[in-house]
Amino acid sequence: MGTAVGERDHDRILVTDLQARRGAELHGLACRLGLSTEEADDAVQETLLRAWVALDAREPIRHLDAWAFRTHYRICMDRHRWQRRVRRLADRLRGQDSVAPIAGIADRLTLWAMVDRLPERQRAVVYLRYRADLSFEDIGQTLGIRPVSARSHVSRALDRLGEMLREEDR
Amino acid sequence: MTHERIEAALRGDTPADEGGYRPRPLPATAAEARVQLAAMRRPARGIALAGVVAAAALVIAAGWALGTIDSDDGGIDVGNGGTPSPGPSEAGVLPACGPDDFLVASDPWGGAAGSRGTTIVLRVVDSTAACVKPQTVGAEIRDADGTVLAVGVFQTFGGRPAPTARLAAGTQVELGVAWSNWCGAPPTAPTLSLLLDSVSVPVEPSDGSAILVPPCMGVGQPTTLSVTDLQPSERPPIGG
Prior knowledge:
The structure holds two protein chains of two kinds.
Chain A: H1 7-32, H2 37-56, H3 64-94, H4 111-115, H5 120-130, H6 136-143, H7 147-169
Chain B: H1 3-12, H2 30-50, H3 52-61, H4 88-93, E1 102-106, E2 110-112, E3 115-124, E4 130-132, E5 137-142, E6 148-153, E7 166-168, E8 172-180, E9 191-196, E10 199-203, E11 224-227, E12 231-232
Antiparallel strand pairs in B: 1-3, 2-3, 3-8, 4-7, 5-6, 5-9, 8-11, 8-12, 9-10
Helix pairs in contact in B: 2-3
């Protein structure tokens, strides 16, 4: 023995660690973006595999968690857009209007259920901020928007959540 | 309700669907990760070529079963990384591997990006005819007083029982351990133990070096100890 932890071993450890620390949050973000539980698991797995491949290729990853959330968001949106297209076309073929349901979102009176009724961008920003605990700079990089815009989305989302809570109280 | 109170509630509450995450096994190597990634993306490309309309028609023809597009096999289950799996009868007669069945060695601790870790290598001793891989593999770190600082157990994926596998004499396997986010006072002489099922086996770095304590990455966030599944080891035999 006596050899240091190899770089390749270390990549595996980093990805395993990422799965343990962030797997549930990546899954939760995918659900916020409208994927089913099974689809969210697929998306998380794809993110982890991409992370490993990127680490192995020695891509410059400064902050693995932020990188993972950014990649995961793109994967989820790709899948979400694809599903939406299929759903619309299927509705058209059946002669019905699309109702654009948000799959997997429970109709429960919890704050997170209210978050799920926010517009898509606000849902993502709120989740990344308060569950993934990302900075506004990292959120901006994840969503491809400026940090100040991320902050603004959060503020508007909190305003709207406050209104929803007041409506619930009435 | 003020923003501050809503923010506090959002931080304190966990969306129910987070608990629905079912971690899947990760491959043993980056090369396998590439293969799995390609396999995950291949069906999507095929569907794209067939066209959205055709897919939608298929969906309708299948009874509006959208959920079947992504099958349960989307993630390829590598799990044991090539360790042979026995039939039920064989696994039934072999004893579970215990601490006495293994020689154990550990690399010096290393790490980056907020984690510190090591690789532990286990070889089934020659005196053991064969045994069955433990159902759970874990690790724990204690300080000099015996206080447990962090525990990690390899999770059985998807709610399924851990795959069983026969380990013959001379078989060598390894697992990775990564410790992250230690925000407490520097622990005194931390030690690492391997947990085979519920039996604890002390593991010291083979060169006598110390366990490295990870940096604090998030105050208020728990420290984590991640453990990989046992994977076949390609290293030269230990202990011989």
